[in-house]
Amino acid sequence: MRLFAALSLVLILTTGCDPITKIMKSKDPEYKLRKAEDYFAKKKYNHAQQLYEDVMPNYKGTARFEDIYYKYAYTAYHLRDYMNAENLFKTYMEVFPNSARAEEMDYMRAFTFYKQSPKAELDQTNTIKAMGMMQTFINTHPGSTRNKEAGAIVDACRTKLEAKDRNAAKLYFDIGQFRASAVAYEALMNNYPDSEQTDLYKFMSIKAYYEFAQMSVDEKRTERYGKVVESCQDFMDRFPQSGYAKQVQQFLSLSQTQLKSIAHEQPSKTSA
């Protein structure tokens, strides 16, 4: 009796464990579509995706096709297959350019790139794409209710790009590549003029240029300490209230002292 019960349980589990297989075998597209809608509503996106993909050829050219394709695109998004979702959102806009959902699809396409944006240390190709596409969305849909969120994403992408560039500039400094570090910090100032750390970038470029001057050959020291002096004076003009102003003043004094010392050395070398 126990053996019979166990075999019955196995039979029930075996025949009932994979209902999607039974549904896929059906020849009735209406039944499959109803089940796809049910799975989608229950957030079982993997099953919904399989069924939508299977029935789409049966509804292509009908009034129902747009809604099926719309939900099919979202199954990829919800399954975190963002590369495929981006392509599906793009195709939706191409196939249904006059749809009431076209703006939503335009936004979601840009959003998939944002979802693929990695940590600041990694390649930022998708971050750059997300920022550009979100800005294009804002420009293309000036009255959209999504623009506030789109703008926030643009800012988040810019912050991440700034962090990557800042890390690179710091790395150059840490490994003693002072000229490269100074140039990188100056690029940060130019590329992110609204950053709250602009004075830090200017200060670090001064510090890097000073270290570069320190290790320079005699023939280049006058030019390079002069660069430090020029940068320090520019800093004091632009950021007189900065917390780095005192340190910048010290680099200015040190560089001016070095230039005076070099000037005193040069006549004696010439006479010799």
UniProtKB/TrEMBL annotation:
Top-level taxon of the source organism: Bacteria
Entry keyword set: Cell outer membrane, Membrane, Signal
Cross-referenced Pfam families: YfiO (PF13525)
Keyword ATP-binding: no
PROSITE patterns: PROKAR_LIPOPROTEIN
SUPFAM superfamilies: TPR-like
InterPro entries named in the record: BamD, BamD-like, TPR-like_helical_dom_sf
Outer membrane lipoprotein BamD-like domain span: 34-218
Full protein name: Outer membrane lipoprotein BamD-like domain-containing protein
Source organism per UniProt: Flaviaesturariibacter amylovorans
